[in-house]
Amino acid sequence: MYGADYFGLSTRQRISLQQAQEIALGYVPGQVIHANMDLDNGVHKYEIFILTPQNLIFEVEVAARTGQVLKIEQENDFD
After folding, report:
1. pLDDT band at residue 25, thresholds of 50, 70 and 90?
2. Other beta carbons within 10 Å of 38
3. What is the pLDDT of residue 76?
4. Which residues pair with 60 in a beta bridge?
5. Fewer beta carbons below 10 Å: N end or C end of the chain?
6. Going by C-beta distance under 8 Å and a sequence separation of 6 or more, which residues neighbour residue 29?
7. Predicted TM-score of the model (pTM)
8. What are phi and psi of 64, to 5 degrees?
9. Which helix (H) or strand (E) holds 6?
């Protein structure tokens, strides 16, 4: 849905946490309950945790450089 090109960013820039949250919410509607940046195998990514209206928690990983969604995974608990 959304990526760095949506925000008019070049590939050398990094998207903001706010932009990463908007991208994640475009895939999983709900309320962001936690968000942070992580470095995984040399790739900076945002980990966005979203609580849906159905009380499910999803983790959405968004690449910090491109805004590409790397993973969407339902969490099994509130950890």
Report:
1. very high
2. 11
3. 83
4. 48, 72
5. C
6. 50, 52, 53
7. 0.80
8. -70, -30
9. none
